[in-house]
Amino acid sequence: GDSVTQMEGPVTLSEEAFLTINCTYTATGYPSLFWYVQYPGEGLQLLLKATKADDKGSNKGFEATYRKETTSFHLEKGSVQVSDSAVYFCALNTWNTGNQFYFGTGTSLTVIP
Amino acid sequence: DVKVTQSSRYLVKRTGEKVFLECVQDMDHENMFWYRQDPGLGLRLIYFSYDVKMKEKGDIPEGYSVSREKKERFSLILESASTNQTSMYLCASSSGWGEEETQYFGPGTRLLVL
């Protein structure tokens, strides 16, 4: 079935380090792909999304490119800040084959000064 | 901006109590969802609704029911709370079908069942 797999955490980085959080997916149709962020004690917030192959989503310095050939949607940021400490969820929506959202298990990121 | 609100941020209930969690969205979204979030398990879908008075079971509906009497409101009901229902509950809404559909989440309700 359709699913999302993202890298296990926790991830700890120093401020200004480069961030990559890997996400791969399995889907029978042509899903839309998302990254959500959850700050401590809060709900999930949409960070960025991409709806078709080769699209790049970007927001707040974060980027992810929809790679159909590798079924991936890796999240990257060139220089992380302490305020980026949060849990990051990769998700897909199989909007054309049943309209289900599938979420990864989340990757916890801690950025230390 | 889409706003999804949940009636409580924190709740403490006793085993066997009936518990109501309320969710309201202000964007006239057709679809609404209830998830629970547990460490190491990510988000698991409990119930969802595509329209008023309609409901569909998600992956883990046992022990829960839902009500959608108005488009903007989606309630999750724990008929008889048990300790294994201690969790973070997240409500979400989305605008409809298509590749642009996006889920928007409320702040969550952290429920402790004693």
Write a structural description.
- The complex is a heterodimer of chains A (113) and B (114).
- Chain A has 113 residues and is mainly beta.
- Chain A is built from no helices and 12 strands.
- The termini of chain A are far apart.
- The mean pLDDT of chain A is 92.
- Chain B is globular.
- Chain B is mostly beta strands and 114 residues long.
- In chain B, the strands form 2 sheets. In chain B, strands 2, 4, 5, 6, 9, 10 and 11 form a 7-stranded mixed beta sheet that branches. A 4-stranded antiparallel beta sheet of chain B has the order 1-3-8-7, with no helix packed on it.
- Chain B has strands at 4-6, 10-13, 19-25, 31-38, 42-49, 56-57, 64-70, 73-78, 87-94, 103-105, 109-113.
- Chain B is built from no helices and 11 strands.
- In chain B, 0% of the residues lie in helices and 54% in strands.
- Chains A and B meet through β5, β6 and β10 of A and β5 and β10 of B.
Q: What share of residues of chain A is helical? A: under 10%
The total of helices of chain B stands at 0
Number of DSSP helices of chain A? 0
Radius of gyration of chain A: 14 Å
Q: Could you report the average pLDDT of chain A, rounded to the nearest whole number? A: 92
Beta-strand share of residues of chain A: over 45%
Low-confidence stretches of chain B: none
Q: Which two chains have the most extensive interface, and how many residues on each?
A: A-B, 24 and 22 residues
Count of strand segments of chain A: 12
N-to-C SSE string of chain B, H for helix and E for strand:
EEEEEEEEEEE
Distance between the termini of chain B: 37 Å
Helix proportion range of chain B = under 10%
Series of H and E elements of chain A: EEEEEEEEEEEE
Rg of chain B over CA atoms, rounded to whole Å, is 13 Å
Characterize the largest beta sheet of chain A: strand count, sense, and whether it forms a barrel: 6 strands, mixed
Look at the structure and give the mean pLDDT of chain B: 92
Question: What's the shape of chain B?
Answer: globular
Strand content of chain B: over 45%
Q: Got a strand count of chain B? A: 11
> Multimeric state of these chains?
heterodimer
